[in-house]
Structure formats: structure tokens, C-alpha cells
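USER: I would love a firmer grasp of how sequence relates to backbone shape in proteins. This is the protein in question:
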Amino acid sequence: MLINSRKLMVKKLEIEKENKEILNKYRALLRACKNKTNAKDKKDIRKAFNLAMDAHKGVRRKSGEPYIYHPLAVAHISAKEIDLGATSIICSLLHDVVEDTDYTLEDIDRIFGSKVARIIDGLTKIEDMFDKNLSLQQENFRKMLLTLSDDVRVILIKLADRLHNMRTLEAMTKSKQLKIASETLYLYAPLAHRLGLYAIKTELEDLGLKFTKSEVYKAISLSLNETKKERARYINKLTQPIKDTLKKEKIKCTIKGRPKSIFSIRNKMKQQDLKFDEVFDLFAIRIVLDSEKETEKADCWKAYSIVTDYYKPNPDRLRDWISTPKINGYESLHTTVMGPDGKWVEVQIRTKRMDDIAEKGYAAHWKYKNIDNKDKDSSLDSWINKIRDLLENPEANAVDFIDDIKLNLFSGEIYIFTPEGDLKTLPKGATALDFAFEIHTEVGRTCLGVKVNGKLVPLSHILKSGDQVEVITSKKQTPKKDWLNFVVTARAKSKIKTSLKEDKKTIGKEGKEKLERKLKQLKIKLDTKVETELIRYFQIRDSLELFFRIATGVISNNELKDFAKKRGLGWYTSIKNKISRGPKIKARRDENKMIVFGENDEVFDYKLSTCCNPIAGDEIFGFTTVEEGIKVHRVTCPNAIEMRSNYDYRLIKSRWVSKDSIDFIAYLNVKGIDRIGLMNNVTKIISAQMNVNISAVNIISNDGLFEGEITLKIHNVSFLNSLIKKLKKIDGLQSVERSYKLE
């Protein structure tokens, strides 16, 4: 009895502690939205909080915390980090209520009104899509973007929700961590970037890296911490004369140094093949001016002049996003200067208003837009309108849609002039044909030729900032399939595909009639079932493609006869379960099994993926393909993020059970100084000391340096790592790294 009494006492104390914490979080939320709420707003927020408390009563998160912590955190992010108002805060508090509890949308409408109900409905639909075991990630993202046509706050709250989920991801299982982190890197971080939420975008990227490549994240994080004091001293040394001069000129400002994100450092190391201590621009200096709207531009250039009086700028690194803001509303002056001790440093110069928009994105943009109506046709609005335009096509394939949209989410921008001198913004890498579609759909469809700066160029010509472009059209011109090979904008791709599909439909109609006649001769009636059998037999995407191939003669009479013959032998019955969304694969017995799958360690037929060449001992997962059964990939495979984001239902838990019974192919990338005898030292260690077979050596030497690939047959990853350690000790060998498949 005494033990039970103590347990009850402990439980009571824990509940009291949690209730106190809930109250503290609620008060923090009220403080965060203090300046943008009135008495009525506060009353409604309180009402929403009480309803959420009641709805989620007794429910706990995977971490063991009361569930109410989550909506409170999402509401706090919406208020403080995105700068949203009372309606959004209420919706944030209630975002899971309809999805997870007995409260209905009608209840929300009755208590809080139609506006709140509409936003909650949008959030619920998105969440509902996530929970289904289907390849609907692309369709989900499309539906989320559809809310731009209705209320952008749905997306902003969803980003706040995703940010808090990422901050608390440790409580989830490893497989869930990888899935959610992959989705975040693939879709949500680019979307936050495009909506101007740089702070959130950066954190989502860093957290995504933390869970998808934890070792890399830890290594860079540790290195940043070790150099923190040294950076602080350097920043102070660099900024002190600038501070003094700005003060003398009576320019009010704040100057701060900030390290680059772990994600961006890692990208730089990867792209430029650098070690951490070789990355020179680990931080940037940001000068934020306290300026009036009328003098912003002049003040920023004045500050730039002061900075460059002390430190020489790199002329190739000046970026003026004040005169021409980025498409997401971002405004700032960027330059790179040679600082003390011969170090390059990025300097960002902007005003408080610009900084607010840079950090809080879309919401801040609208706050300032309401103050200054001159901003009504901003580039951010233009981008949103482009998205709406793309979404108007009801026939667009979801997978194609996300691929097209993603091209433009993270791209840089170029500025192009029309013959009349109007400025158009396009993604970096855009072609002359992209520009034609940017002017108008019909201009793009009938584009016959393009003049860039007065000279005739191919439609595939890649444009540069400052180009003046004139489009030549012809009514006889129609979109060509090869246009899709070089256009890069989502708008151009979408319009070309729609046009081609319309042409294809006309031809397909003729093909269907032709197929009916041919099958009739083979004593087969064309119906939905037979259509499905034909699609699967010829391994094509849909009915339209089938009819098109019949019409154009791609599928011959003999092939149709073969289909009829095999169908008569019961072919369809034997394969109908094999070719489907995520084929079912029967387990088999195998005494020499090397990889097992699932929770019950079942044995399936599989292939080792050639895109990442897994070796025994690597962390791996199985991916169920439509045509080739299970393919085994490394967890660090370059395609893993996309697979987890789009096709998580096809992933199978996998592990090695035998490591030394077979040789695996592994690739080593080697770089070093081209001295006599170096490669002999390398091959001696590989063949003589480690007894490893070399399948191929491909080395290129140039100006005293060499780089190349060595192909090995190896038993497991531990053995490979030991070999790499030994090779790294060779004098003159600068780097030895495992690489992916040789192309």
C-alpha cells in the first residue's frame, strides 16, 4: 500500500509539473503575439487553447510528453518565427483537432467561423494524405500548393508544424526519422526557401542532414564549436573599424557575424572536394541599418562604400538584390571582401525592413505591402501567380508536377529584358524558349525563333542576366517533344506537355479504333480488363500511351498476336500480382542467405543496386521496384532521399547476415601528387598486404597531379575501411574516398 501511495504521489507531482509547463508555454505564446492581437483576439486564442486542451486530453507524443506541447509549439513558431497573426495562431493550436479527435469541421466553423474552418480543412486534407500508405507525396505537395489559390496561411502553418516535428524527431524510430527527414529535404526546405523563410529553410536543412547523414552532421558541428572563439575574435577585429565609421556618420545599425549553416558547409565541401579547414567562408557579416523607407537604398550603398574603404571587394561577388529583389521578396546587398589575415568574408547589407522579410518571408512581405501599396506587383506575388497557373491544369501528372516545380524551387535567378524594356525574372539556366512561355503561353506554343541582343539564336540558347530577348512566332508552329529536353521552367514544361497531350489524344482516338478492329480479328473484345492486360504486357504507363503506340505502329500486328497467344495460355493470371504498385514477393528458403528483409528476417530474391554499390556491413534498405523485384541500396545512396520522400511504402527493412561469403565491387577515388613509384605503393598495399583483387585502374595525370578510380573486389565494408586507412598513410596521396558507380 505504501509503494502504491508513493507511485500516486510521484504521478501527481509529474502531472502538476506538466500543467505548470503547459501554462508557461501558453504565456510564452501570448508574449510572442502581444503586438499583433487585441482583446478579442486574445479571447479567441484562449478559447482555441482550451478546446485543444480538451481535445488532446490524456494523449501523449512518442516522446512521452503531453500532446498539447505540439500545437502550442506550432502556434509559437507561427507567431514568433513567421510573424503570423491571431487567425493563424488559432489555426495552429487547432491544426490536429479535426484529424485526431472527435471534433468536426462543423464544430470549428460554429465556434470560430468559416475562415478558421477553411484553413483547418486545408491542413487536415494535407495531413490525411500523409497518413496513407500510398505514393502520394507528390500529389500531397500539389494539393498543398493548391492552397495558394485559397489561403497561403495553410502552407505557412504546415511549415511551422514540420519544423517542430523535425525539432522533436529523436523520439521516432530510425525508419521514421529517415522518411520524415527525406521529405523535409526534398520538399519542405525548398518551399520555405521560395516563400522567403530563410531562417526556417536553414534549420530544416540542418535538421534534415542531422538525421539522413548523422556522422557528417556531427563532424561539422563539432568543428564549428571548436573554432567558435577564434571566429568571434576575428569578427570583432573585422567589424570594429566599420562600426566606428558608421557611428561617426550617424548611421544607426547592428552588426553581427553568423556561421554558415552546417548543410551549406557540407554542400561546399562536397561540391569543391574540400576538407572543413579548407572552407574559407565559414561565416558572414550582416549589417542591418535602421533606415527610413525613402532612404533605404542610399543608406545601404553608403554602408557598402564604408566597408569597401577598409577591405577590398571581389568584383565578381557583388550581388545587388535591392535594385532588383529576388522572386521571393528578398532584398539585400551582398559582397565578398578580403578581410584581415588574407581571409575572404561575405558581407550582407540590408535594412530592418529587409531583414524582417528575409527572416520571416511571406508574412512579413504582406505586412509591409499593406503599408506601401506600391509593392502590389512584387516578384513574390508574380511567383505565386505562376504556381496558380500551373495548378489550373487538372490533367497534370502528380509525379511530373513535383519534378517540374522542384526545378524552380531552389534555382538561382536571372533578369531578362523584353524589346520594350520590361524586366522578366527567370531561373538560372533558363532558355530562350522558357522566356517565350514566360511572356505568354501562346507566344511559347507558336515560337519559331528567338533573337538575343539582336542576334538569332537556337530555342535552346541559355540566357544570361541582362539579355534583351525578342520572340518570333508563327501560327503554323506547334510544340515539339524535343522541347522538353531543354526547357527548365515549370511553366514551359507544363504547357508543352499539355499541348503534346492534346495532340496525342487526337492520334490516340484513332489508335483505339484501330486496336478494336485488330483485337476483333483475334476474337478478343476490347474492354477495361483487356486494356489493363495490354498495358501491363507492353509495360507502358496508361491507355493513352497504348492507343498512341497502336496508331503510330510502334506496337505491331505480330506483337498483338503474341499477346493473344500468351493470354490464351493463362499468362495474365500468372503475372497479374507481380506487376502492381509494390509487387508481392514470396519468401524462399536459402541456407546461404546474405541479406534478410522485414521484421521477420525473410529471404527474398534481390539485386544489389548499381547506383550506390552496397557492400556487406553497409547500412542498407530494400526498395521494391515494379519490374525488377527488390533492389538493395545503401542508406547513404544519392537517390535515397527521393525514394523515401516519394515511395516510402516500397521500402523494406534490410540487414546483412553473411559478410564474407561473396566478393563485392567497390570503387575508390584517389587523388595525389604524381611522383614516381606512388601507384606502385598503392597497388602493393591493395594486392600484397591486404590481398584484395584489383579489377580495374583508371588514372589521369596532369601538371604534376593525378586523379582516378580504382575498382576492387572486397568482402565487407570493415575490410574496405581498413584498406582506406592504410592507403591514406602513403606519402603524396592527398585523398582516398569510396565513390559510387563509375559512369
